[in-house]
Structure formats: structure tokens, C-alpha cells
């Protein structure tokens, strides 16, 4: 008996895990294209500017989390059943759409699996953070374009996240750090008391910006702070830190 696969058999797994209506896929394609076009125009000289000039340059830029990294974070949320997610650094809200889609599916799966004796619906949300008012306003427009499946799960906190995340946090399952590097460690320290054992912290550009993340890296590597870390080899690195609890 021949073991040769049929000619029509697929040769690889479809790498896109996103389950969403066509209009959301089209929206994400459009937003990623805008972000990628902007990033191609940023030069090394731009990054060498002083902070004030660089901030002004970046004020209208997407700088969205890379598409393949968004897929990874989305899959991580599904695999761990994360219901409450915090995003530090929302910008125009592209990655937030992926977070909300994943949380939506987690809630759907958990509600389907409930026994008849438990009538309570599972609840969750994505807490997004943005300091730039124009970006926050535009992000809301994109989420509304995506529809209620996305928009209804997002709580946007505007202002300095070191202050806005100090209050009313649920038990946090996943924290995404995709933010200006000096704010990464202060943000983690604000959110950490709300992390549950087994929660995950994902940090973008952990190798590409290692020097700027030095304080965060030292903190994550110090075992007394309760994290176990691994780097995923995406472009410029993506770290996954599992919180096991402080000693």
C-alpha cells in the first residue's frame, strides 16, 4: 500500500490562527500595512534624536506589534484561558484587537463548557492604556469598526499608565509590555500585585532594545521577583515571563 500523500494534501500548517469575521481580517490587514509603511520610513538618525524630538516624530506613528507577534500573543491567551489582559502601550489599538478577539473566544469556550448547575457567565476584559489623546480617539474608531465582539471587551485608560493602572485592576492573567522602554519596569511593578501565579508577561523588542531594557531584564532575572523567562526568536525578540510568585 502506498504511503504517498494525496496531491492535494497541505504541506504546512496555516500559520494564521486568528478566528474573526472577514471585515476584521480586512481591517487588520489595512492597519498592519500602514504601520509597516511608517516603520520603513524611520531611520537610525531618527532614533538618535533627543527624546523631545523623537516623541514628536512618533506622535502620529502606529508602531504596531508585528503581525506574527500578535498571532503568538493571541495563541498564548487561548492556550492559557486568559480572561483579563492588560496592554501597556496601546497606540492606535492594532494589537488590542487581537487581544480582544482572543479574550472573546476564551469566554465563549468557558461558557460553553459550564455545567447546567452553574448559570453564571464567564467575564473578562482587555485593559488598554494610552497617553496620547489623538491616538486614543483613533483607536476607539478602529475598535468600533471591528464591532462589538472587540469594542465591548476593551476598557481604555487614558493618561499616565503609572497612575491609571494603580486602581481597579482585576486578577491579571497576561500583561503585554509594548511601550517606551523606561516605562516598562515601572508598569510591571504597578501591575505585579494583581498578577496571579501562572500569569504571563510578554515584552516586545527584548533583544533589539536590550540596553534600554536593562533594568527590566535585571528585575525579571532576579529569582526573588518570581519570574521564569524565555526569549522567543521573533524579530528583535519577544520575551515570555511566567509569574510563579515572589519568594
From TrEMBL:
Q: Which InterPro entries match?
A: SAM-dependent_MTases_sf
Pfam families to which the protein is assigned, alphabetical: Methyltransf_24 (PF13578)
* Source organism (scientific name): Kwoniella heveanensis BCC8398
**Record protein name field:** O-methyltransferase
Question: At the top level of its lineage, which domain of life is listed?
Answer: Eukaryota
Amino acid at each position: 500500500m502506498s504511503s504517498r500523500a494525496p496531491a492535494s494534501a497541505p504541506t504546512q500548517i496555516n500559520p494564521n490562527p486568528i478566528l474573526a469575521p472577514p471585515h476584521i481580517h480586512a481591517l487588520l490587514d489595512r492597519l498592519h500595512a500602514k504601520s509597516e509603511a511608517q516603520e520603513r520610513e524611520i531611520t537610525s538618525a531618527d532614533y538618535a534624536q533627543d527624546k523631545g524630538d523623537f516623541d514628536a516624530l512618533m506622535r502620529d506613528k502606529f508602531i504596531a506589534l508585528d503581525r506574527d507577534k500578535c498571532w503568538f500573543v493571541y495563541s498564548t491567551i487561548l492556550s492559557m484561558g486568559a480572561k483579563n489582559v492588560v496592554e501597556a502601550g496601546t497606540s492606535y489599538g492594532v494589537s488590542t484587537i487581537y487581544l480582544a478577539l482572543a479574550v472573546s473566544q476564551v469566554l465563549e469556550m468557558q461558557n460553553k463548557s459550564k455545567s447546567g448547575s452553574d448559570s453564571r457567565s464567564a467575564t473578562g476584559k482587555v485593559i488598554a492604556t494610552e497617553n496620547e489623546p489623538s491616538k486614543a480617539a483613533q483607536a476607539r474608531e478602529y475598535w468600533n469598526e471591528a464591532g462589538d465582539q472587540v469594542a465591548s471587551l476593551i476598557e481604555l485608560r487614558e493618561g499616565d499608565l503609572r497612575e491609571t493602572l494603580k486602581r481597579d485592576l482585576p486578577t491579571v492573567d497576561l500583561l503585554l509590555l509594548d511601550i517606551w522602554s523606561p516605562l516598562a519596569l515601572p508598569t510591571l511593578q504597578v501591575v505585579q500585585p494583581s498578577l496571579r501565579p501562572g500569569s504571563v508577561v510578554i515584552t516586545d523588542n527584548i533583544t533589539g532594545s536590550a540596553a534600554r531594557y536593562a533594568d527590566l531584564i535585571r528585575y525579571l532575572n532576579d529569582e526573588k521577583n518570581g519570574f521564569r523567562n524565555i526569549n522567543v526568536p521573533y524579530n528583535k525578540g519577544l520575551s515570555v515571563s511566567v509569574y510563579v510568585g515572589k519568594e
